[in-house]
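Issue 218. Parser rejects a valid record. Input:
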Amino acid sequence: QVQLVESGGGLVQPGGSLRLSCAASGTGSSFRTYRMDWYRQAPGKQREWVARITSVGRANYSDSVKGRFTISRDNAKNAVYLQINSLKPEDTAVYYCRTVSGGDYWGQGTQVTVSS
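Output the parser choked on:
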């Protein structure tokens, strides 16, 4: 059973940065073949897709975060990361990682709050 655990969220001032992590377990050596996504859900809003990284490291981003967010992966650590820069109050949300490789798996989320 694949498990995803996010970490790295917190309270940050506008303009600040955070690095979110998503640790995968139960994947064995197959993690390197997994496509990984980050989503977020702001209060009172639907969950939205944020970024994706393919098994070969190709990254895609939603228009709302392009240029500020960077997704990366470390297959040796079975981990995917989301570097978030120039944070805005509208980035406040719970951030989730997800994979649909071999099933549909979500983490429990990590809260990011951007406020002065």
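Fixed in the parser; the record now loads. The mean pLDDT is 96.
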